[in-house]
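Homework help board

Subject: predicted structure for assignment chain

Our instructor gave us this sequence and asked us to write out the predicted structure in token form, then describe one feature. I got the tokens but I'm not sure how to describe them. Can anyone check?
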Amino acid sequence: MRLRVLRALLVKECRAYFDTPAAYVVTIVILLISGYLFAAPLFIQSLAVLNAFTDAAPLLMLFFVPAITMRLYAEEAKSGTLEVLCTLPAEDIDVLAAKFLAAMALVTFMLAGTILYPVTLAALGSPDWGGVLGSYAGLWLTAATLAAVGLWASSLTRNQVVAFIVAFLLSFCLFLIGKVHDYVPLALTGLTDFLGLDSHLARLSRGVLDTRDLLYYASVSGYFLYLAYLNTAGRRSKP
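My token output:
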């Protein structure tokens, strides 16, 4: 029963994305920008590397992921359909899981469009496939973390713009804190490196699988998903 409910909710959320042109337009824009970032070193500097793309991709995700998650709860709260969901036999955790998985389906769709980059590298030479796979795993996990932040922000308000701004600012803080390594006391560098997105993605991009990185992504995304669950569960409990 739970799996059928989750599947039905997931299909509903995916249709809300893929039955409208907005998802395709945003994806095309992201692919055009990332394509330029990949091609510029290739044609200008004759460097067949994935670094320029993987270094800039988290910054692109700061805009892309909040944009696709801002409507997930806020729109339903504004239109009143969230109250209808609360009366259905679906659990809050099912609704949350469906929304999160639908957002990640769109992220996966976008990342799939960049497969041409490593294929190009393979045609030009012998890329480090461990680093390539690690880069894509790191980007996917980074997007999952930002999607969890976006879901929490969307659960706070009925206004999609407010949800986007809150998600972007918090995501930007996670991005920025990894950039202050050279500006904080030595005793704090370990903490800033762990809290920031950069160090974890950098290790995975080198093909290094560290349990600390997996723990970071799991704990941060799990924490914000739990906060979103508490917000939505609180609505169900109200008379």
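Reply (TA_rk): Your tokens look well-formed. For the description, you could write something like this. The CA atoms of residues 70 and 137 lie 24 Å apart. That's the kind of observation they're looking for.
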